[in-house]
Each structure stands twice: as structure tokens, then as C-alpha cells.
């Protein structure tokens, strides 16, 4: 394996793979290093006991014209093995079943039916749809946001539109503030519904979530939802295949333990694609490069002038001393970060194929009381698609369950750990029995569960933190972590930097990280 590259990408989450593809398309020789044995980070899949389980994310949106997944497929000429689904989500709340219709008018009528509120409720959702649409449009145009210099502002000024002011204004008020203005804050069920929906998408509640970011989170069920045949890992597999076609490479079992910034001598013999003189020596286009060391026994040291980190910022700053500003910022965002408890269940079912085709695949179930050990008040459940022959076969369906865990750092593999896991599993299985008539405990074939400890082992994410940084940190959106670090040749992507969590967001972040790199170079 070659040791010297033009670009090294740390982590194969979708943001990192987007950045890798962008650089590769521009002629750079790109190497992607992955800690685990399969790509995708928090949007991956794994095989266990003959069943394919999702490791994290289970919903997929963003293929509408102009949205990030649409940009990704068109810019790199790739096609994912996806199927559209008819129903976005069912919410089970206090004995009520709430259909999150994709159609905006139908959903508004459903919200009125369940929560009331009259014209004020209709107006609330009209604002949500308007701000969400404008936010996606804005994030696509402002490639240098959050601005770091006056030059960034000047270069972005030509992208300005009058409606952008409205989005920024709604970025500075909470969802609860808008509820109060519309006198929609006194319905406990409505508040409970909003809080649990926002925890899925924004990692915080209505009281603490900026309305603009919340609008995008609350309206994602109103986009066309898809499932990935063969599991979410196929998104990454398709992207890696394209990366290799463009001359890039992907390596697994590469847990990085040190990143060092070093400096070239005046003439350094390299093999990367930067300009060289007749003697094969690199022209002095940049004085520094990054040396990346991993725990891999055979290939453990690589060099490149440009580094892209797809790691959470808390992990990255522990690997290098070259980012003191980012280290300070990461330390200021240590509180209120969520972990997750997840389960995968293979269960036999007796429903016929036609009935399964009409079944909603995504459910949010509100619980009578919070789960123990820092668990949340709801659980998100996704079912494998009946037409996915890899994950649904022989009358067996795969269920993916997830719930939030506060203070994930408190989970330890100690004497109480097995008991804690079993207790959580038992509660969640009982919840499934109460919610789904077709789910029978005795028909379970196999189960597994994962705690924050497991997540840390799988992905290396510090304390098993998942989901990114709660939007409550960003009532001033200019304070979001930029895709550019304090070092101009170290770029950032993933769910802890702008524009945040969720597959469309990290994809957009990966694309923008590379675009702004070249925009600043030209500037």
C-alpha cells in the first residue's frame, strides 16, 4: 500500500465519503481510513447470526431536486439501491395513532384532528414548511457558512436573497417561543409530541431548539422516504466503488491514534499529484503535510498535504496538538450530548405479503414512563421492507429499535452491565407486544442490543456519543463548527460540524467542505 497521498480522509461516514469523492473527481489521489471492518459510520449495517441488522440510521430522505442526495447522485453519476415507501411514520401516543403523512395538507389536517388548535395550528405548519424549504435552499447556496472572515461574507454576498433574513430571524427563537406566540403551548400531548419528534432530529426539545433548524427536523417525514435494499451500508458501498473508479482507495481496520503536522524540506521527493520539476521534486506549493498513524500492524503510517476528518470533534482533538482552538470549542460542547441504546430483533411473522405492503415501516412509540439508566421517553422502531430479500426472508422480519441515553459516559462494562442491558431489552420487547398485534415474543429468533459502550467500541466515538451536537447550542447559527478547521489544510465533516446531523446534512457538509477549500484557495 502506498504511503503518500494527496488527501487522507479519516472515517468512512457519508460526509467523509462525499469529501473523498469530491477530491477524487478533481484529480486528487484519495485514501479513506476506517476503524471498523465495514464503512458507513452511524449509517451502516452488519451481519450477525445470518441476519443483517442496521447499526444506526434507518430513515433516508433528501432526493428531491436540489436537495443533498439528489446533488450527490447527479454530481458523481451514482445510483443507490433504494425503494420509495408510501408511509413516512406512525406515532403512537397515549393510545392514539398519528399518521405522519408525506402530503403537507393531509399532515396538517391530521395534526388538527389529534391536537386541535384551529387556524393557529395550520399557521404553525405553514411556517414550518416555509422555513424548512428556505433553510435547505439557503444551506445549498452559502457554501462558506459559517463565515470565518470578512472575505467569506463578501464571497457569499452574491448568494443573498431577501428571504434569508427570515430564516436567520427564526434561527434565534425557539419552537416553544413560536408556540407561545400562537397560543399553542398549553396542550401537554402536543408538547410531548413535538419534544420527542425533535429529539430524533435535533437532539433537543421544543423549549431549547432553534425554530429554523427544528422546522427542517419536524418536516422530514413530509419528504419522500426511502429504504436501502441490503441495508444502509449499501449507500457507502456504492460510494466506495465509485471512489475506486476515480483512483481512490479505502482501507478498513485503521484505527487512527495520532495525527502530526510536519513540514517539507525545500525539495522533497513525493509521488502525489502535485506539480514536480524535471528531477521529480515537489515544487514548494505548501510547506506542511499531515502524517497519520494507526494501530494497523501492516499499514500504519500515511502522509498527505490535505486531511479530512469525519470524526466527531471530541475524538479529533485528542489525536493532535495542532488544533488548540477547536479543542477549546469541543470542550465547551461536552454537556447534554446523547448516546443511544439500540436493539435488533429477528422475528417470525404470520401476516400475508399484501398486508405487509401496507404496513408502515417507521414508528415512534411514546412510553408510559422514561426508560431506566438515562433512557428516553420514546423508542423509534423500523421494520425491514418486505421486498428486501436480504433482510426479509422466510417470514422473518428485522426490527431496529433505538432510544436516547443521557450521560452515555456513565455506562460501564461493570458487574451491573448485563443486568442493565437485560432490563432495557425486556421493557422494549414488552413495548413491541403492546403496540403490534403481529409481534409475538415466542416468535423471536434472535436479538442483540447495543449500549453507549458498544457504540464506542464499534465506531470509536468518544463515550459512544451519537446524533451530533444538540441544536440548542446554535441559537446563534454563526457559532456552528465550520467545515474548515483553524488549519487551512485540515477539513471537517460529519454530524458534529455544520450543517449537523442526519444523512442529507452530513452529505451536504462533505460536499461543501471541498467546495469551500477550493473557493478559499482561489480567493
Structural account:
Helix 1 packs parallel to helix 10 and helix 3 crosses helix 4. A hairpin with a 6-residue loop joins strand 11 and strand 12. It is built from 16 helices and 19 strands. It is α/β, with parallel strands linked by helices and 523 residues long.
Q: Quick gist of this model?
A:
With 523 residues, this protein is of the alpha/beta class. It has helices at residues 14-25, 68-76, 104-115, 118-141, 150-156, 163-170, 175-181, 188-201, 211-218, 233-245, 313-316, 324-331, 353-358, 417-435, 452-459, 503-522; strands at residues 7-10, 30-33, 45-48, 51-54, 82-84, 89-93, 96-100, 226-228, 249-251, 256-263, 288-294, 301-304, 306-309, 339-348, 362-366, 378-383, 396-405, 444-450, 490-492. It has a 7-stranded mixed beta sheet, sandwiched between helices.
Amino acid at each position: 500500500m502506498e504511503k503518500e497521498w494527496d488527501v487522507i480522509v479519516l472515517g468512512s461516514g457519508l460526509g467523509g465519503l462525499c469529501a473523498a469523492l469530491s477530491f477524487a473527481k478533481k484529480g486528487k489521489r484519495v485514501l479513506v481510513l476506517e476503524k471498523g471492518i465495514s464503512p458507513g459510520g452511524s449509517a451502516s449495517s452488519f451481519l450477525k447470526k445470518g441476519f443483517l441488522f442496521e447499526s444506526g440510521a434507518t430513515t433516508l430522505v433528501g432526493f428531491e431536486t436540489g436537495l443533498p442526495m439528489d446533488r450527490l447522485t447527479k454530481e458523481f453519476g451514482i445510483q443507490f439501491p433504494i425503494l420509495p415507501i408510501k408511509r413516512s411514520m406512525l406515532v403512537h401516543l397515549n393510545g392514539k395513532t398519528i399518521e405522519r403523512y408525506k402530503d403537507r395538507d393531509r399532515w396538517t389536517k391530521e395534526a388538527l384532528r389529534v391536537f386541535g388548535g384551529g387556524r393557529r395550528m395550520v399557521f404553525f405548519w405553514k411556517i414550518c414548511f416555509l422555513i424548512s424549504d428556505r433553510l435547505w435552499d439557503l444551506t445549498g447556496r452559502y457554501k462558506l457558512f459559517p463565515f470565518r472572515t470578512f472575505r467569506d461574507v463578501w464571497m457569499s454576498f452574491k448568494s443573498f436573497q431577501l428571504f434569508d433574513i427570515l430564516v436567520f430571524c427564526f434561527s434565534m427563537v425557539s419552537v416553544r417561543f413560536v408556540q407561545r406566540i400562537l397560543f399553542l403551548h398549553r396542550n401537554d400531548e402536543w408538547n410531548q409530541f413535538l419534544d420527542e419528534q425533535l429529539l430524533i432530529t435535533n437532539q433537543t426539545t421544543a423549549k431549547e431548539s432553534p425554530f429554523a433548524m427544528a422546522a427542517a427536523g419536524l418536516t422530514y417525514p413530509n419528504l419522500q422516504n426511502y429504504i436501502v435494499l441490503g441495508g444502509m451500508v449499501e449507500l457507502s458501498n456504492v460510494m466506495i466503488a465509485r471512489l475506486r473508479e476515480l483512483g481512490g482507495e479505502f482501507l478498513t481496520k485503521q484505527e487512527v491514534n495520532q495525527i502530526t503536522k510536519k513540514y517539507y524540506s525545500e525539495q522533497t521527493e513525493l509521488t502525489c499529484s502535485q506539480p514536480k520539476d524535471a528531477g521529480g521534486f515537489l515544487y514548494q506549493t505548501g510547506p506542511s503535510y499531515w502524517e497519520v498513524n494507526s494501530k494497523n500492524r501492516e499499514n500504519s503510517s500515511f502522509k498527505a498535504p490535505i486531511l479530512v476528518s469525519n470524526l466527531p470533534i471530541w475524538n479529533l482533538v485528542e489525536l493532535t496538538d495542532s488544533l488548540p482552538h477547536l479543542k477549546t470549542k469541543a470542550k465547551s460542547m461536552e454537556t447534554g450530548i446523547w448516546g443511544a441504546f439500540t436493539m435488533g430483533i429477528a422475528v417470525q411473522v404470520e401476516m400475508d405479503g399484501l398486508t405487509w405492503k401496507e404496513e408502515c415501516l417507521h414508528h415512534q412509540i411514546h412510553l408510559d414512563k422514561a426508560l431506566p439508566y438515562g433512557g428516553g421517553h420514546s423508542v423509534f422502531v423500523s421494520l425491514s421492507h418486505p421486498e428486501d430479500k436480504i433482510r426479509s426472508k422466510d417470514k422473518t422480519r428485522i426490527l431496529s429499535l433505538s432510544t436516547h441515553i443521557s450521560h452515555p459516559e456513565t455506562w460501564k462494562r461493570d458487574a451491573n452491565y448485563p443486568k442493565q442491558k437485560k432490563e432495557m431489552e425486556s421493557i422494549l420487547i414488552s413495548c413491541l407486544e403492546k403496540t403490534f398485534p403481529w409481534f409475538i415474543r415466542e416468535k423471536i429468533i434472535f436479538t442483540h442490543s447495543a449500549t453507549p459502550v458498544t457504540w464506542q467500541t464499534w465506531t470509536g466515538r468518544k463515550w459512544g456519543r451519537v446524533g451530533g451536537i444538540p441544536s440548542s447550542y446554535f441559537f446563534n447559527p454563526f457559532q456552528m463548527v465550520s467545515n474548515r478547521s483553524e488549519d487551512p489544510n485540515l477539513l471537517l465533516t460529519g454530524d458534529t460540524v455544520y450543517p449537523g446531523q442526519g444523512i442529507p446534512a452530513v452529505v451536504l457538509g462533505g460536499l461543501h467542505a471541498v467546495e469551500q477549500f477550493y473557493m478559499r484557495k482561489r480567493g
